[in-house]
Amino acid sequence: MASHNMVYLVATLDTKGEEIVYVKHLLSKRNVASKIVDISTKQPHSFNHIADISASTVAEYHPEGEKAVFATDRGKAIVAMANAFKQFLIAQNDVDAILGLGGSGGTALITPAMQALPIGVPKLMVSTMASGDISGYIGASDIAMLYSVTDIAGVNVISRKVLANAANSIAGSVLFKTQEQVEDKPAIGLTMFGVTTPCVQSLSAKLNDKYDCLVFHATGSGGKAMEKLADSHLLKGVLDITTTEVCDHLFDGVLACDDDRFEAIARSEVPYIGSCGALDMVNFGSPDTIPEKYRDRLFYPHNPQVTLMRTTPEENKIMANWIATKLNKCQGEVVFIIPESGFSALDIENGDFWSPQADQAFIDEFEKVFIQTEKRRLIKTSHHINSPEFCNLVINEFKNIIK
Length: 403
Hints:
It is a single chain. The protein has 403 residues and is an alpha/beta fold. Helices cover 39% and strands 18% of the residues. It contains 14 helices and 14 strands. The protein is elongated.
């Protein structure tokens, strides 16, 4: 039986022991149970005795055992301990909330594990890094970061206030946990871009009465956020109409997914419909930021800060292979629907990016690589992605696989 309201307090105790003891003391005054987890890579140290879970216990979760953590230089040790801590944390069944304290090293150690926890588990990172670009620490997760103001080096007039706020915040989030209301509408994820907006808005309008339609902007982080929810089993289905992040990932664009795109679909086996939304374009910033090798290509200036580049037949072939190979790993219900009359508002007859040969290169390669099974199907339709006919086809297929 998991204990009630257990907060994991995580830090490198060789440098943050005094602070973590102070936070634990404040939580106990609020009747909130906590465990101190040591992730120090320097052993032993004077705060070893206060850890409920020692650094060597955490290090044993590294795939190569604790020697991989303690037998290397500091940089390698931090990477290895981060890996071990992530494996340790996901193996625990009583994490009601997590509070981390750290400088740059501690923040890099703790946040990957926080990202691995489901959406909704309270996660608070008190960090010296919290006033800069924190996207790398947060990823697509719901981590709250609190700037420590001074270095976290002892309990002083400033840190006492900041740490008290942190302790009270995490105590509040476990003590006042909202009981899940019975969800009247299951949530589904949809991916959208400006050039696929008519399709996705129309899908949302038609599905809204039965489903909570969560629309994600296909900007790299949008796809990651949607897949994070799929991994957390918070989505009942995915309408991945706009897979354009793949273009940017493979061809130097600025709104790129990463190599994990589509893997959450395979892991979660969530019912999935995919399509080719905006695979006709790679996103760059202002014209002067475009890599030299692309200078002679076809561009469309979306606005002064965003320049779109038309993908070539060769690039479409590469993308088709990449996407089909990923989807071949899926064992759940998967339907991929190809709109043969164009992949975006620009890729339409007489449009700026109209290129039937580029689209056909995608279709041919996808058909060649995609392995169809009873649950994994390819459908081609003669319509455009933003047409009412395409929208109706997606809805009908979705109703078939969501049963």
